[in-house]
Amino acid sequence: MNTYKIKLADGLALLLLLVSYLAPFFANQIKVNINVLTMLTNCYIIAYLAYNISFADSKKVLLMALPLIVYGTFIIFYTKGFKLTVDKHLLTDIQYLIVNFFDVIFVVFVFFIIELVLSRILGTNITSIIAALGLLLYLAMHNTTYIPFDFYYKDLLVYFAFYVLATRINPAKSINKFLYPLAIILFVGEVYLVYTKNFYLGIYFSLFILTYIILKGDSPVGTRSFGKYLTFAYIYPYKLNYILLASIVDASPLIVTIMAILVTFLLGEILFKLKVKFLDYIFVGVH
Question: CA-to-CA distance for 11 and 226, rounded, in angstroms?
Fold first, then answer.
């Protein structure tokens, strides 16, 4: 029986992905705001992916996006009965696919391009300032009436702040010990305000510190690991597994979700053991 060592950064990403898939079925029982949970999950996953991307060259980042094209194309063909016609509804189908299945990974690649262009033109410091200003704009829209406009996708401002934060992190053997109690105290305080005072700023600021601590302690970076491999398996092939199982198995969405999780784990383990580079990049996006 094989055993795998999974690093904290990879393990947390895996856990949050699985929680995001299962939590909607138990939201009423556990009394959790799914929208808040989704946002917190997305913030860490985006930071986690950005951190890994920041140590990869552009070629590997493009290969990381390859499964998005492969799975996206297949899912559209599959849902159309393999009779795809290019018409005005195709863009709607693509938008639906991205929003409902590959939203986080798509956003990460868009942020990669935006951050790369801004950093090349304006420099990394100005780009960081822009990300911080975007976060302030989000907080103003969420908590005040001073901003005369609002938009549905304003959460992207928070996600971009997490993306930029993660790309600025370098792994370290030691981390400022002051950050640990600060993160805990801040997190406890935020949870207290949310659940006793019904006061929520729109984001848990403790998550910035916790994400920083976890990612900064993640080393070595760029090496082949089962944890990272499985994380990408649950980002990519899990979605196709769910769609295929939902179409052939007469069961509740919860049962289909559990089946898709198990199938994805088995598929990820098999592909990881095979160590075939072109299969890894086609199906998972990392090797």
Answer: 10
